[in-house]
Amino acid sequence: MKYDNVRLKQMLAAEYALGTLTGAARRRFTRLLQTRADLLIELRYWEARFAPLLASSQPVPPRDIVWAEIERRIQRDTVTSLPTAVPTARPRSSLWIWQTWAVAASAAFVAVSLQLYQRQHAAPAAPPPVVAAKPPYVAMLSLNQGAAVWTVAMNPDQRRISVIARGDFGADTRKESMELWLIGDDGKPVALGIMPVTGRGSMPMPAGVTMPAKPVIAVSREPLGGSPTGLPTGPVLATSPVVAL
């Protein structure tokens, strides 16, 4: 399934938030939420959008006839206990068969016990090394008192940065660019890429860029194509701490 399709992601996230996404599809989407920050952002958007509807809804108790039907089906499906078998005497001619079986069973028991003892006292195998996955990071940058918002998701493992732009950023994309910066623990900004001002965008994380202990991102207004110096040259429009999911 192509989870990079924008329309598909919106539909799946909306159905997941409503609870109508069930079965294998819901389990698969739940697993994807652990590694796909863009899907998690989409889910949070729909949860916030549906919250007023869910808060205003009232629980509807089932009718009495429904409970009666449930009880009837439970009684119908109750499994009756099986009758107790009456033991019968074994003929003498089969006595040697049982004796032979007892000897074979004893030998098998000894062999299995020996194998279990050897396994329990054998040196345990070294477990394979576990490589911890780096968590995705999310931040929100707000401009013009919330009139425009960027939602930024950073995935260090996939080396991708996903951005959702909503609102009016007041940018003239023919003359200027909005550039994204990562500010490390030393306070030095590192250029990450050009931000979209409408819809969605994606950019690779530059080679060598790692997430600091307390990451912060910022956006500055730069000449078309980005800063010519590798450092912010225009006004910083917004900053935000980055949170690990």
From TrEMBL:
Q: Which domain of life is it from?
A: Bacteria
Q: What is this protein called?
A: Anti-sigma K factor RskA C-terminal domain-containing protein
* InterPro entries, sorted: Anti-sigma-K/W_factor, RskA_C
Organism whose genome encodes this protein: Solimonas marina
* Record-linked PANTHER family: ANTI-SIGMA-K FACTOR RSKA
Can you quote a single GO CC term? plasma membrane
Can you supply a Gene Ontology BP term from the record?
regulation of translation
What Pfam families does UniProt report for this protein, alphabetically?
RskA_C
**One GO molecular-function entry:** sigma factor antagonist activity
What region holds the Anti-sigma K factor RskA C-terminal domain?
103-236
Lineage of producing organism:
Bacteria, Pseudomonadati, Pseudomonadota, Gammaproteobacteria, Nevskiales
